[in-house]
Specification:
A 7-stranded mixed sheet has the order 4-6-5-3-9-10-11, with helices on both faces. Strand 9 and strand 10 form a beta hairpin. It is α+β, with helices and mostly antiparallel strands. The chain is built from 11 helices and 11 strands. The protein has 2 domains: about 90 residues, no CATH class; about 160 residues, DNA integrity scanning protein, DisA, N-terminal domain (YojJ-like (1, 3-Layer(aba) Sandwich).
Length: about 260
């Protein structure tokens, strides 16, 4: 082990330096993700407790150190319980990084083509539709609210499901890669009721709701106007031109070179 320097009986090695750098990067990343929330105050308090705990341990203040370690354990549990949405937000940011995507990326080029073809017809007919594309996060709770299908995604299947006379047309369909997992799924509604000065319908609020809680990408076809919208990360893009739909949807699903991949 390479020792960089010594202070008395304490040795500071290259491993210690790497340890400090990694922990510092983690805290900086968490601070940046949480800096506009109340949770950042708790995080800074926890960091302060850790620093004081290390100091008291080095000075051999056993009783004081035991109290601090006990408080730190309780504080950490409270942080996890009270700030689940903020922690979820941090995890979403991590799972959206390019490095993470190298390990979980799966092509859904064929699925996108089938969905887009169906979307064109549904939009022209002014038939409402709600399609959820799962990514890295588990949406089992959403799937459990619907009717399990486990069918390969196809234009005909999607058009049949969203036919107003179909018993499955209410709610959303959930797609994972090339499989339509379930239909008639109930999505959580967003608290946002207006977008750019106009009221949002139930479908658009549902799309926003699930995008706020997971890293899914949601496609919406308006029954009233036939407009196509996309939701991701709690943001809604209304009125996506059909000619741009494939490009935008592919980018959201990290398939920016979908044509080249399909050709291979």
């Amino acid at each position: 082990m390479l020792v960089l320097f010594r202070i008395g009986f304490l040795e500071f090695s290259l491993v210690d330096l790497a340890d400090i750098v990694i922990v510092s990067i983690l805290f900086i990343a968490m601070y940046r993700a949480l800096r506009n929330t109340v949770a950042v105050q708790i995080l800074l308090g926890l960091l302060l407790l850790l620093v004081v705990s290390v100091a008291t341990e080095s000075m051999n203040l056993k009783a004081f150190n035991w109290i601090l370690r006990t408080i730190t354990d309780v504080w950490l549990i409270a942080f996890i319980i009270l700030f689940q949405p903020e922690i979820r937000r941090v995890l979403l940011i991590v799972t959206r990084t390019r490095l993470f995507r190298l390990f979980i990326r799966q092509s859904i080029a064929d699925t996108i083509d089938e969905v887009i073809t169906a979307t064109k017809e549904l939009s022209e007919r002014h038939t409402g539709a709600l399609v959820v594309f799962t990514r890295t996060q588990n949406v089992k709770m959403t799937i459990d609210t619907g009717i399990p299908l486990q069918a390969k995604v196809s234009e005909e299947l999607l058009i049949s499901i969203f036919n107003p006379k179909s018993p499955l047309h209410d709610g959303a369909v959930v797609i994972e890669n090339q499989i339509l997992i379930a239909a008639r799924c109930v999505l959580p509604l967003s608290t946002t009721t207006k977008y750019e000065g106009r009221n949002l319908g139930t479908r658009h609020r549902a799309a926003l709701g699930i995008s706020e809680q997971t890293d899914a990408v949601i496609l919406v076809v308006s029954e009233e106007t036939g407009q196509i919208s996309l939701a991701q990360e709690g943001k809604l893009t209304v009125g996506v031109p059909f000619m741009q739909l494939k490009e935008k949807l592919s980018q959201m699903l990290n398939e920016q070179q979908i044509s080249a991949a399909a050709a291979v």
